[in-house]
Automatic annotation (TrEMBL), chains A, B:
Catalyzes the hydrolysis of the adenine ring of phosphoribosyl-AMP. Its cofactor is Mg(2+); Zn(2+). It comes from the Bacteria. Residues 32-105 form the Phosphoribosyl-AMP cyclohydrolase domain. Zn(2+) binds at C80, C96, C103. It holds the Pfam family PRA-CH. Binds 1 Mg(2+) ion per subunit. It comes from Paralimibaculum aggregatum. This is Phosphoribosyl-AMP cyclohydrolase. It is found in: Cytoplasm. Pathway: Amino-acid biosynthesis; L-histidine biosynthesis; L-histidine from 5-phospho-alpha-D-ribose 1-diphosphate: step 3/9.
Amino acid sequence: MTTPFDPATLRYNEAGLIPAIAQDATDGTVLMLAWMNAEAVAATLATGRVTYWSRSRGELWRKGDTSGHIQRLVEMRLDCDRDALLVLVEQTGPACHTGRRSCFYTAVHAGTEVEIIAPPAGETA
Amino acid sequence: MTTPFDPATLRYNEAGLIPAIAQDATDGTVLMLAWMNAEAVAATLATGRVTYWSRSRGELWRKGDTSGHIQRLVEMRLDCDRDALLVLVEQTGPACHTGRRSCFYTAVHAGTEVEIIAPPAGETA
């Protein structure tokens, strides 16, 4: 079954946003979770550059415009409830603002937080 | 750096929820995205059975209690902003209520929705 895709048909929250998981298309690493509005979804598909909505800045956030750590869209997927997105990406440089490859660098082991990915040399936290 | 983990230190939304990505610990497939409250986070860690908050039913949802399609927790990770979780799981049966392994079975290809994982035999949609 195929249907023309319209970003307006996704289910957004009360702020008009939908969570988007970015996953490395090559090895499956989950890199980050961020948010998109309908405009960001459309921009991502139109340009091939993954674009989120920055909740802190209140504006479209084309990933990598400042850092150079861009995400090229390989494939966008939606879930059965149409209220979550999975974007498979080709990531340039680290996805995390701390310089780590993934934002999910902290694990809970036996009730304790453990950093399982070290920060890059010369950086802390 | 290690710190005792307290579910109350995560950043929940105005409804007291945090998005949780479930990923197959074995092969990295992203299975679903659901939501946890602090109680669900604590229950998941305490029992090793991944437990969400069902927004539609308004109650704790220990995945698989009805379907048998349980998720054993392999590792819980949090992101740099402490406002998203990644749970690595050992999934029994399909994660999706449609019978598919992953909820992310629809992709957008050239502006068209395409189901990239077929429904199980005997089921539709």
